[in-house]
Amino acid sequence: MDYLTHNLWLVWTLISVLALILEVSSGTFYIMCFAIGAACAVVVSLFAAPFWVQVLAFIVFSAGSVLGVRPFVVRYLHSSDREQASNADALIGREGIVVEDIPERSTGYVKIDGDMWQARMDAYTGAAVSGDRVRVVARDSIILSVERL
Fold first, then answer.
1. For 83-100, b where at least 16 C-beta lie within 10 A, e where not — what string?
2. Which residues contact 25 (CB under 8 A, 6 or more apart)?
3. What is the pLDDT of residues 6-39, one digit of tens each?
4. DSSP string, 80-104
5. Which CATH class is domain 90-148?
6. d(CA 128, CA 48)
7. I need a surface site. Which of 36, 92, 109, 112 has the fewest CB within 10 A?
8. C-alpha distance from residue 118 to each of 93, 100, 146 (Å)
9. Beta bridge partner(s), residue 108
């Protein structure tokens, strides 16, 4: 115990490493801020500063990281999340095969990635028969609008 009180940099290093390990499992980037604060406390402890100064450095740099570093990291890593289509919207632009004829002004079925979808032909493109390759151009609820390739 006496060893640790004389080498507080080791304690702060342990706190920093543990915080980084915990951050990997959480992904919120809050615990990373504590790792940054502990790393700054390591630097302060190397200058033989009193323990209360080290704790103050830990608090100040952790809070500063939450306010300054975390928003930047979150914005950088999650910048493309809003651009990705999901669920049925992700089908737009995909290609499929007609498995049940699609008559003019009526619906049939297409197969896209192994899933069956009700579909109708895009306006003024005529009918599609089984085996035709089509591309999804729009979606209205659960009915896809397709065009022949």
1. eeeeeeeebeeeebebbe
2. none
3. 889 999 999 999 999 999 988 888 999 999 999 9
4. TGGG---GGGGGTT-EEEEEE-B-T
5. mainly beta
6. 80
7. 92
8. 16, 9, 10
9. 119
**What are the domain boundaries of the chain?**
1-81, 90-148
Torsions phi, psi for 145 (to 5 deg): -100, 130
- Look up residue 138 and give its amino acid: A
H-state helical runs in 90-147: none
Q: Could you tell me the pTM of the whole model?
A: 0.53
CA–CA dist 79, 70 (Å, integer): 14
Pair of tokens at residue 92: 């737009």
Q: How far is CA 25 from the centre of its chain?
A: 14
Q: Residue 37 and residue 40: Cα distance in Å, rounded? A: 5
CA angle 131, 136, 139 (to 5 degrees): 130
Nearest C-alpha neighbor of 30 from the set 44, 19, 46, 42: 19
Spatial contact of 127 and 104, defined as CB atoms under 8 Å apart? yes
Give dist(CA 36, CA 53) in Å, integer: 16
Residue 103: CB atoms within 10 Å:
13
